[in-house]
Amino acid sequence: MKKIGFVIVIGLILLAFFTFYSGGNSESYVLKVQETIDDRVQYLRTSDNSPFKKPEITFSAPEYFVINPKYRVNAKLERISQRERITIQNSDGTQSAYQKYAYANFRFEDKDCRLLVLKQTGFGSLQQYFLGFADNTSGESTYGGGRYLDVEIGKSNKVILDFNLAYNPYCAYGEGFTCPLPPKENILSLSIEAGERKFPF
Predict the structure, then answer these.
(1) Which alpha helices (DSSP H) does the chain contain, by range?
(2) Exposed / middle / buried, residue 187 (Cβ in 10 Å: 0-12, 13-18, 19+)
(3) Could you tell me if residue 39 is inside a domain?
(4) Which of 12, 52, 127, 183 is deepest in the core (most CB within 10 A)?
(5) In the chain, helix, strand, coil percent, each to 5?
(6) C-alpha dihedral (8, 69, 189, 105), degrees to nearest 10
(7) Could you tell me the residue range of the domain that residue 128 belongs to?
């Protein structure tokens, strides 16, 4: 009986572990996302590198959609072997050079979606990735120039895209900034009602 009880306890511990790390523990997940958002807002409020340090831009805390676990998606990473260099448009009409690094493939609301992950050139071996996207909310409830996602890429062929953490580029807060626009591959034909909303200025 003791052995059976031990097995049950171990099973429950493993279940709790995998539930939490798969995003199944909704309350813990929401708290973690909110903490990350709060840290970003605090950065915008206090950092010397914040766009709100410009005297002509008055600070106001950015607004976010209600955190919804359904917008945390597991994507399959399709690395690009022939890393083609491309240029993408910036908000001020200039262009920036990037390298095609991978595609993140996922299914959302019965649609197959694909987002291009770019690697910024000029950083040597430093892994600086860029994932900008636009969707049906762009220009309506969210910034018209698209939003950004930070992605962590390791050796696995899986990657988590958490749209609850989507954030605005500096151009959303005022003029005088240069912000890369999402490549055409990353314009989604659906509404991502998650992450940072449009900033009024």
Answers:
(1) 2-21, 26-46
(2) middle
(3) no
(4) 183
(5) 30, 30, 45
(6) -40
(7) 55-186
Distance (Å, whole) CA 25 – CA 9: 19
Q: Is residue 191 part of a domain?
A: no
Residue listed under structure tokens 């449009």: 198
| Residue whose entry in the numeric block shows the structure tokens 């939003």 | 147
The total number of structural domains that make up the chain? 1
| First-to-final CA distance of the chain | 67
The 8-class DSSP code of residue 180 comes to: B
Q: Which amino acid is at 148?
A: Y
C-alpha 106: how far from its chain's center?
14
Whether residue 80 contacts residue 100, with contact meaning beta carbons closer than 8 Å, is answered with yes
Residue in the structure block whose two tokens are 């605005």: 168
3 state DSSP class of 141: coil
Question: Beta-carbon neighbour count of residue 76 at 10 Å?
Answer: 15
* Residue 90, domain member (yes or no): yes
Give the tens place of pLDDT for each residue, 103-147.
Answer: 999 999 999 999 999 998 765 555 679 999 999 999 999 999 999
Residue 120 lies in a domain: yes
